[in-house]
Design brief:
189 residues, mainly beta, Neuraminidase, 12% helix
Length: 189
């Protein structure tokens, strides 16, 4: 029993040492979406905003190998240079209510997007043409804003789609067939 206080002291000392060494390590700059703040930012290692693009409810962002930024927001997606030049754009349909909540650059140069409202995964080429569309179906009680979130295309051509309102992540093949469905304990974001 006497070993317990010594063990507790050693554990606490190691914890404090780890916290101190982590705090002393230099930070890293990063790209992030500020959904409620309506902006995409590059934040310096010191926590200062180095670059900012204002857009409504950005959800997903990527630093591309060419140094540009790809991100989606409620009404579309953009690829923007560090000098703030738009080099690619996708505008979501305006004839129906749509929200874009995920994007992913694909190896062939296209961009994969997921849209709530139209309930679909799309792949868009550099000219802005939709080259692939996969319809998604969720339960009727799930409202537009809560339909889908993070979506990724896998190397095998399948997609992992977050069905936010259903509390599930589903693997879908290239034709839209659900291969598996995994319940998530809390509502996935």
């Amino acid at each position: 029993m006497k070993q317990l206080p010594a063990l507790l002291f050693l554990t606490l000392t190691l914890f404090i040492a780890n916290v101190t060494s982590a705090a002393e390590q230099p930070g890293r700059r990063f790209l992030c979406c500020d959904y409620p703040g309506n902006k995409v930012c590059i934040v310096s290692a010191e926590g200062k905003i180095e670059w900012q693009w204002d857009c409504k409810n950005p959800q997903d962002c990527w630093l591309l190998p060419n140094g540009n930024y790809l991100f989606c927001f409620v009404s579309g997606a953009l690829e923007v240079t560090p000098a703030k030049q738009v080099v690619w754009e996708y505008k979501a349909p305006t004839d129906v209510k749509v929200e874009v909540h995920a994007c992913q650059p694909l190896p062939d140069g296209q961009v994969m997007l997921v849209e709530c409202g139209t309930s679909r995964i799309i792949e868009v080429d550099r000219a802005g043409k939709i080259t692939k569309e996969i319809k998604l179906a969720t339960t009727p009680e799930v409202k537009l804003h809560n339909q889908f979130r993070g979506t990724r295309k896998l190397k095998n051509g399948h997609y992992l789609v977050t069905f936010k309102g259903e509390g599930k992540v589903k693997e879908i093949d290239g034709s839209g067939k659900v291969l598996r469905s995994i319940s998530v304990p809390r509502r996935p974001a």
